TrEMBL record:
<protein>
    <recommendedName>
        <fullName>ATP-grasp domain-containing protein</fullName>
    </recommendedName>
</protein>
<dbReference type="InterPro" id="IPR011761">
    <property type="entry name" value="ATP-grasp"/>
</dbReference>
<dbReference type="GO" id="GO:0005737">
    <property type="term" value="C:cytoplasm"/>
</dbReference>
<dbReference type="InterPro" id="IPR016677">
    <property type="entry name" value="UCP016817_carboligase"/>
</dbReference>
<dbReference type="GO" id="GO:0016879">
    <property type="term" value="F:ligase activity, forming carbon-nitrogen bonds"/>
</dbReference>
<feature type="domain" description="ATP-grasp">
    <location>
        <begin position="44"/>
        <end position="234"/>
    </location>
</feature>
<dbReference type="GO" id="GO:0046872">
    <property type="term" value="F:metal ion binding"/>
</dbReference>
<dbReference type="Pfam" id="PF02655">
    <property type="entry name" value="ATP-grasp_3"/>
</dbReference>
<dbReference type="GO" id="GO:0005524">
    <property type="term" value="F:ATP binding"/>
</dbReference>
<dbReference type="InterPro" id="IPR003806">
    <property type="entry name" value="ATP-grasp_PylC-type"/>
</dbReference>
Length: 319
């Protein structure tokens, strides 16, 4: 075994079974660091300490026990409820008024209740060593798209790289500061919502992110994120900045209803990844596969990704 990569869904997993020699093969943050940073309550407190803009956040227990109740009256509605751990937005939902908020806080005290920030969803992908962090891309996030049958308004549906905004330099600086202050190494990602007034930090993903495909494709494959992370972790070396050559889009399509994968979605052509096996039953709301697109601008890349999404849908027979 040459290396271990911690991916999405394993942020709070117990890696106590790993021997010391195997733990040294992790191409990124130690499991304890990943679990700490993935705790959204801990992160909100740390961002407060650093003076970095982020949504006003309370735990359900604070609201239910009255500690945050007075301040919660000043929250703007709707409020976003989300698990303390986990990404992807699948369990997130809105509380539309104070009565709903207090009821949900009592029922789900382990959840977080966060001020809703309206704006453009984005992320910064970066590589960090012990000495320095370097942003490699700013990405647009595709969240809750009806055209992809997203099962909820906060569900991650993919991304487009690069994302052009007047705040690009600022979000990169914030991301690099966070990586250094939190002691992150390897491949990390910072999620933002960008408003007219500036960026707000939403989450920190202290492991490889779903943007890997589009970040690499947008550079014409001149950047290998796994190799870059390995060098940063094992040799304390950072890659040089790589300029994007194209736009790349990734669109995850979900099942609108139960269906069965009837055909080979690859068909010996590029453009579809995360391919399920033939005969697999897909439940409503589950991801089927991912369409990839590359173009000279955002519109071209996203349009190609959506054409591949149609190929995916054509390979599923709905029950």
């Amino acid at each position: 075994m040459d290396g271990i990569i911690i991916g999405s869904g394993f942020e709070s997993a117990d890696f106590g079974f790993l021997k010391a020699e195997d733990r040294r093969k992790i191409l990124g943050n130690a499991p304890e660091k990943t679990k700490e940073v993935s705790n959204k309550a801990w992160l909100a407190s740390r961002l407060d300490d650093l003076g970095i803009a982020h949504p006003l956040t309370y735990t359900g227990r604070e609201i239910a026990e009255g500690k945050g109740k007075g301040k919660a009256k000043h929250l703007h509605y709707p409020v976003v409820a989300k698990p303390a751990y986990g990404g992807g937005g699948t369990a997130n939902f809105f509380c539309n008024n104070e009565k709903e908020l207090i009821r949900c806080a009592k029922q789900l005290p382990e959840f977080l209740y966060q001020e809703y920030i309206k704006g453009k969803h984005a992320s910064v992908s970066l590589i960090s060593s012990k000495r320095e962090a370097i942003s490699v891309s700013v990405n647009e996030q595709l969240i809750g798209l009806d055209s992809l049958y997203a099962p909820g308004p906060f569900v991650y549906c993919g991304n487009v790289t690069p994302f052009v905004t007047k705040f690009s330099e600022q979000v990169c600086e914030i991301a690099e500061e966070i990586a250094m202050k939190l002691g992150l190494i390897g491949s990390n990602g910072i999620d933002f919502v960008i408003t007219d007034d500036g960026p707000f930090v939403i989450e920190v993903n202290s492991r490889f992110q779903g943007t890997l495909d589009t970040v690499e494709l947008s550079t014409g494959l001149n950047l290998n994120l796994v190799d870059a992370s390995m060098k940063a972790v094992r040799a304390d070396l950072l890659v040089e900045r790589v300029m994007t050559k194209k736009y790349a889009a990734k669109a995850i399509v979900f099942a609108k209803q139960e269906g069965v994968v009837m055909g080979n979605l690859d068909l010996d052509r590029a453009g579809i990844v995360d391919i399920p096996e033939i005969g697999r039953i897909i439940k409503p709301g589950e991801p089927i596969a991912t369409g990839i697109g590359i173009g000279n601008n955002r519109e071209e890349a996203f349009a190609e990704a959506m054409r591949n999404v149609e190929r995916i849908r054509a390979g599923v027979s709905y029950i």
